[in-house]
Fold this protein.
Amino acid sequence: MLKKSLTIFGDGYQIRDLLYVEDLIQAYELAIKNIGKVRGQVFNIGGGIKNAYSLLQVIGILTNNFGYKITIDFDKVRLGDQKYFVSKNEKMKKILGWSPKTDFLNGVKNMINWQKNNL
């Protein structure tokens, strides 16, 4: 929203799953309420396969929502960067019944609206 350029390390086709912050907070709250079930365990928490997008796809979505072209600078890929990361949330769903509720496209619209009203 500040019309600054973005730097992508690599080609921009890296896939990430995107999780709406309110869904993450819900997962934390469930874990706290059920600490006896989850104490000492590790959970993958993310947007899952339904919310998996490439960096370039996300920038395209932001461009459409902002109504102006976002400037992208490309730099060399960073050592250890993953080309594909999508969280498998099955353990959290099995133990606590949690799964992400917010579709990425709705979540990004909510985020942009919040930023417009609060920045």
Summary: Helices lie at 21-33, 35-38, 55-66, 90-96, 104-118. The chain has a mean pLDDT of 95. The longest helix spans residues 104-118.
